[in-house]
Amino acid sequence: MSQNPNLFLSLGKQVKDEYGCTIGKIASFAVTPSGKFDSVFIELGDGRISKHSSELLKLEGANVTLTSNIKAQAAILCDQIPLIWRKDQALKDLSEKKKISKEMYTELHTSFDGVLAQLKTEAQALTEDIDNEIARCLDETKALNYAFVHLELEHEIGKLDNQSYETAFAIVQESLKRVHMEKTDLDLTRSKLSNILLGDQAKNKGIEGLKAGSSASSSPGLPEPPVVVYVKEIGKTGI
């Protein structure tokens, strides 16, 4: 997020995530001695205070959005890992052209290897976090689908009047759409990280790189059932 001298004007404003779900309200900011916004404190619905990097805060007019920390970390890793590869390859080329000494090559190559190993460790850890979030989305999807079924059942047998049914149906449907959007984003982010890591494995085996557009296989995890999104005209019964 670009530094905004009027950022304090957002104090007390409602904050939503990228999928429209309300997170809470901006309670305060942490500012460095030089005047740079460092962190944002958000009051959650239950009164607790949550601290986030101010870089994740996005202001668009009166709208305040807290962007995904996972996506932000993944974007950084997807930029840094290939950059280190290119630098290491360029270093090797310089050594082969005898433009640098073997000692200098060894020292810098070892440094690049260390940085790359650390970045790959972070990428693996982030992939596990993404897997956990995907599993959560799948659980939420299953629960929301059950909620639809029970709404239909209670409405069908006459225990739920039309107005209550339509209100509840709209709430559950919007929640399901939000979860579906979030899972789609997580799947895409995981795929990008997997492609980066697979590219490193291919590099180590002497392959120039993965062909553009090739799909990366996800590591074993929870089987993914089809995501069911119920879209129907309010007022009609039937699942």
Question: What string, H for helix and E for strand, traces the elements in order?
Answer: EEEEEEHHH
Backbone CA Rg: 24 Å
Strand content: 5-15%
* Contiguous helical run count: 3
Percent of residues in helices: 40-55%
Question: Could you say which structural class the secondary elements and strand pairing correspond to?
Answer: alpha+beta
What is the average of the pLDDT values? 84
The residue ranges in which pLDDT falls below 50 over 5 or more consecutive positions are 206-239
Tell me the number of strands.
Answer: 6
What characterizes the major β-sheet? 6 strands, mixed
Shape: elongated
Strand order in space, largest sheet: 4-3-2-1-6-5
Count the domains.
2
Quote the distance from N terminus to C terminus.
Answer: 44 Å
